[in-house]
Design goal:
Length: 260
């Protein structure tokens, strides 16, 4: 009994300590952001690494998710004689929920794990320590550019996911099944509101980007300098980021669409 209480207390203390270290790293990243933003080539390189290299999986996944939505939505709407509302169903599902959430989950799996592994390996090979010995701040040179590069990439990738999903729904609903093209686009245009749907989706993707990037940077910077430590840190990044995305999605949806 006492051993269980002791282990629970130890895990709680470790969790609070890790949270404090993560918040300190996040604050230092924001504090040193001015240095990397004055050198835009650093941020542009990270946008390429985190965003452009994730584009293929985002585009292909968005297209197939939209095609599945088109099929499932048509089967459901057909029962009520509302096939013309397929465009609004696909667009609202993607812009409000599936676009930001699924794009963030894919981003965490592809870019988040890569960020953690890269920083963990830099720590294991003592590159971080070498920077400190040469009076180069690793937060400003390594962490901050990756934070801003990934943060800028995430909303753009979510927008690409939603756009390709809508195209997939169009291909299935209009081209394959035969829904009227004018009804598809007009119903979508009438149903989607810029502030309530598109802007809230952008805000969601931005929050998810901060969460995923922050977790990936902390896990990489805190990883033990061994192959096993880097491997475990990469796994924790994907798991923790996925749970954080789903939890934040519920909280943000409750606030954003409460009065809708």
């Amino acid at each position: 009994m006492l051993d269980g209480v002791r282990k629970l207390g130890q895990h709680s203390i470790d969790g609070v300590w890790r949270l404090g270290v993560a918040m300190r790293l996040f604050a230092l990243t924001l504090l040193h952001s001015g240095i990397c933003l004055r050198r835009p080539q650093l941020v542009m390189r990270e946008i390429f690494t985190a965003g452009v290299l994730s584009l293929i999986i985002i585009v292909v996944s968005g297209l197939f998710v939209g095609m599945v939505l088109g099929l499932q939505g048509y089967e459901t709407l057909q029962k009520y004689g509302s096939e013309s509302a397929l465009g609004s169903l696909v667009a609202l599902s993607l812009v409000r929920e599936l676009g930001p959430v699924l794009a963030a989950l894919l981003f965490a799996s592809r870019a988040g794990s890569a960020i953690t592994a890269e920083i963990g390996l830099m720590k294991a090979t003592e590159q971080i320590a070498a920077m400190e010995m040469m009076a180069v701040d690793p937060i400003a040179r390594v962490v901050a550019p990756r934070f801003w590069g990934a943060l800028i990439s995430m909303p753009l990738l979510a927008a690409m996911f939603s756009a390709m999903g809508i195209m997939g729904g169009y291909l299935v609903g209009v081209v394959l099944i035969g829904v009227d093209e004018g009804s598809f686009w007009s119903q979508m245009q009438a149903a989607v509101d810029f502030r309530q749907d598109i802007l809230n989706g952008v805000i969601k993707s931005g929050v998810f980007g901060v969460a995923v990037t922050g977790i990936a940077l902390f896990e990489g910077y805190d990883a033990p300098p061994t192959a096993e430590g880097v491997s475990r840190a990469t796994t924790r990044t994907v798991v923790t980021s996925s749970l954080a995305i789903l939890a934040l999605d519920f909280v943000l949806t409750a606030f954003m669409f409460r009065g809708a």
